[in-house]
Design a protein that fits this description.
With 201 residues, this protein is mainly alpha-helical. It has two domains: 4-119, no CATH class; 145-200, no CATH class. Helix content is 54%, strand content 6%. The protein has helices at 4-22, 28-35, 44-51, 59-76, 82-85, 87-104, 108-119, 145-154, 174-185; strands at 163-168, 195-200. A two-stranded parallel sheet has the order 1-2. Helix 1 (4-22) runs antiparallel to helix 6, helix 2 (28-35) packs across helix 3 and helix 4 runs antiparallel to helix 6. The model is unreliable at 188-201 (pLDDT under 50).
Length: 201
């Protein structure tokens, strides 16, 4: 009998297949063609693997797949059901899938892929879509409390626009420090956020 995580994967993939059918059943080649010029192009083999549960659909795949199906439906004069065209709903469902796989730990391969997906997504506090433009944070980040406290103090005034530069030699952790600070303060993806730039070799 399939475990909870595997059942959740099957449910999520069936929703992807339902979207494709509802959009007029675009071929795998057509989906690849529709995404060819995008930031997240899909290959025929990638779509096949995801739709047959051979690999876990990551969030970038979901965005590209949903967008391609929407585009195909529009060009074919097909009106998609509102739930299938709603990226916020897909975001919630994808988060649920990743959590189920991570919590149930049924297969190492799927758990590792789910953990990577969860690590790339900040903790959710609202029902709003979560920005995902950051790479996964470094696993072990230590010994930078004083620097983070300094950045917190500089960036603590909500009405103030501050640009702080972090300078130093290559490999000392400038980018990791900037990223950790941004994640901890929750201002990545916020149009009113402050900015920190890591500069160096």
């Amino acid at each position: 009998m399939a475990g909870v995580g595997r059942m959740e994967l099957s449910r999520f993939v069936e929703e992807l297949r339902r979207l494709r059918r509802s959009a007029g059943a675009p071929t795998l080649n057509r989906l690849a063609e529709l995404t060819a010029g995008s930031d997240r192009p899909l290959s025929r083999s990638t779509v096949s693997d995801k739709l047959t549960e051979k690999s876990l659909p990551d969030w970038d795949f979901v965005i590209s797949f949903v967008t391609a199906c929407q585009t195909h439906a529009e060009k074919s004069g097909v009106v998609l059901p509102a739930d299938l065209a709603d990226l916020a709903r897909w975001d919630t469902e994808h988060w649920r899938l990743l959590q189920a796989l991570d919590e149930n730990r049924e297969t190492d391969r799927l758990v590792a892929a789910a953990r990577t997906g969860l690590d790339r997504r900040p903790v959710r506090e609202t029902g709003q879509p979560v920005p995902r433009q950051l790479p996964a944070p470094v696993r072990h980040f230590a010994g930078r409390k004083a620097e983070l406290d300094t950045l917190d103090a500089l960036l603590g005034e909500p009405a103030t626009v501050v640009i702080s530069a972090i300078d130093g030699m290559a490999g000392i952790g400038k980018t990791a420090r900037r990223q950790r600070c941004g994640i901890d303060m929750g201002w990545f993806g916020n149009p009113h956020s402050t900015g920190v730039i890591a500069h160096g070799g």
